[in-house]
């Protein structure tokens, strides 16, 4: 089949790799004219880590590790930590994972596995402008007609299927699917990169300011520091202001709001606000989940959403990249199993049957998240800090440290597809993102 994918983030290149392995021809269109390693810290675990291993990219993943050594919580006066949760190999005490990587680095690693693949074509600086049925072409075996796809570069091409992997607010999804249910977690977050200083010691550091404000810094593999502001509005008036800034898309308005909100927050707020202004990778996001009644379109049955376009779980779930990798692998796997005369709709339905239960489990966050970690008053912060301190003290004792579970595939059993096992798990074309 000829398949077009919108989006060269995490899900798109993953799907392209496996579709090519099954012999399909893939075109990836990406709005950005240059692929850059931007984005914040994520970790790859469970079945997603297994997919990366099967792609022959695990060593590349480890080389791009952010070097984060653990998580620690900063005192109210900003001088030192009152609790630390260091990374312990084989244990799951710390929020820091053994496989921490920047989302942008992960996307680049996945893209590197297909950039020289003769079955995969990248069109950068290009978007899908219109998708319709090609009535003049007719469908294979009497099935519905294939897709006629109009691209922003002026080309008009025919494809058997389209995979939508272009993010949480996908325009293609808006045009071809019913409006999704948007679950608002009532929080806003801003990410950006700042220069690293001697203050940054390789930890993920979190500081809880009053007024439901959180500041954090994290190391990366590029020798810089990733800064983050997170805020929950305190009332309807604040909510309206933050939502307006989010929807505006105006960096000037968003920077202004962050300065006003965090100028007196304490700790490293001044340094982060100053660095934020010049950061070239500034990103402002409302924490909202996307939930769709179906992940493939009901009109043609040839368009399907994957990753954040289908089921954005929000960054607080810690599973966005994991779901994107799993989605890319499974949708490609189900398409690889189609026989002559079968419609892509059948593969998309199987993809959804396989993955939806796990997606719903991941998205089912408790109602008190993220609010419990964003105290509004001094007594709420004191209570939270006492709980964190006690937790860190208890699990500092090796006997009580639980064994690592994040890499356990028991939460989601990865399906195996015959078309992917022919050449061995690592494949023969790529090894850790480099041509073999």
UniProtKB/TrEMBL annotation:
It comes from the Eukaryota. Residues 3-362 form the FAD-binding domain. Pfam families: FAD_binding_3 (PF01494). InterPro entries: FAD-bd, FAD/NAD-bd_sf, FAD_aromatic-hydroxylase. SUPFAM superfamilies: FAD/NAD(P)-binding domain. Keywords: FAD, Flavoprotein, Oxidoreductase. It comes from Pseudomicrostroma glucosiphilum. The lineage of its organism: Eukaryota, Fungi, Dikarya, Basidiomycota, Ustilaginomycotina. This is FAD/NAD(P)-binding domain-containing protein. GO terms for molecular function: FAD binding; oxidoreductase activity.
């Amino acid at each position: 089949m000829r398949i077009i994918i919108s989006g060269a983030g995490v899900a798109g290149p993953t799907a392209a790799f496996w579709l090519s392995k099954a012999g399909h021809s893939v075109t990836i269109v990406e709005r950005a004219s240059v692929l850059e390693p931007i984005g914040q810290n994520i970790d790859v675990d469970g079945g997603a880590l297994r997919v990366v291993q099967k792609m022959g990219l695990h060593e590349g993943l480890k080389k791009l590790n952010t070097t984060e050594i653990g998580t620690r919580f900063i005192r109210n006066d900003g001088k030192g930590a009152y609790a630390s949760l260091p990374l312990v190999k084989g244990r799951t005490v710390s929020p820091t994972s053994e496989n921490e990587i920047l989302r942008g680095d992960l996307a680049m690693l996945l893209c590197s596995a297909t950039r020289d693949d003769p079955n995969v074509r990248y069109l950068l600086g290009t978007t899908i402008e219109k998708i319709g049925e090609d009535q003049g072409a007719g469908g294979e075996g009497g099935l519905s007609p294939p897709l006629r796809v109009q691209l922003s570069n002026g080309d008009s091409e025919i494809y058997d299927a389209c995979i939508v992997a272009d993010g949480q607010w996908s325009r293609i999804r808006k045009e071809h699917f019913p409006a999704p249910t948007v679950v608002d977690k009532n929080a806003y977050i801003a990410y950006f990169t700042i220069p690293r200083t001697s203050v940054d010691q390789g930890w993920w550091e979190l500081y809880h300011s009053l007024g439901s404000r959180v500041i954090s810094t994290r190391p990366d593999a590029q020798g810089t520091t990733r800064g983050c502001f997170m805020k929950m509005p305190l009332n309807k008036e604040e909510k309206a202001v933050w939502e307006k800034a989010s929807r505006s898309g105006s960096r000037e308005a968003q920077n202004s709001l962050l300065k006003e909100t965090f100028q007196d927050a304490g700790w490293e707020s001044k340094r982060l606000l100053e660095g934020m202004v010049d950061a070239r990778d500034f990103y402002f996001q409302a924490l909202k989940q996307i939930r769709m009644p179906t992940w493939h379109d009901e009109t043609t049955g040839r368009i399907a959403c994957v990753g954040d376009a289908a089921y954005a779980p929000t960054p607080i779930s810690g599973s966005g990249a994991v779901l994107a990798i799993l989605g890319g692998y499974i949708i490609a796997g189900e398409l690889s199993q189609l026989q002559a005369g079968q419609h892509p709709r059948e593969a998309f339905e199987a993809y959804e049957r396989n993955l939806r239960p796990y997606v719903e489990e991941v998205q089912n966050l408790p109602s008190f998240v993220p609010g419990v970690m964003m105290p509004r008053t001094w007594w709420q912060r004191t209570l939270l800090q006492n709980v964190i301190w006690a937790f860190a003290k208890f699990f500092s004792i090796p006997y009580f440290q639980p064994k690592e579970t994040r890499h356990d595939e028991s939460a989601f059993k990865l399906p195996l597809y015959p078309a992917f096992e022919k050449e061995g798990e690592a494949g023969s074309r790529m090894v850790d993102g480099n041509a073999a």
